[in-house]
Amino acid sequence: MIDKTESLTPAALTVIDGYMRLKIGAASAGVPYFNNKTVRARMSLRVKVGKGSPTDITEEITAIITKQHVSAAALTDQSLAKLLVDSGLGIDCSGFSYHVLDAESQARGQGHLNKHLRFMKANNPMTKMLSYLRPVENCDVRTLGSDMNSRIVALSDVRPGDMITMVGGPGGDDRNHILVIREVDREDGIPRAIRYSHAVAYPEDGLYGTGIKQGAIEIAFPKEPLTKQIWTEGGSAEKARLIFERAQASVTELRRLKWLL
Question: Count of domains in the chain?
Answer without folding.
Answer: 1
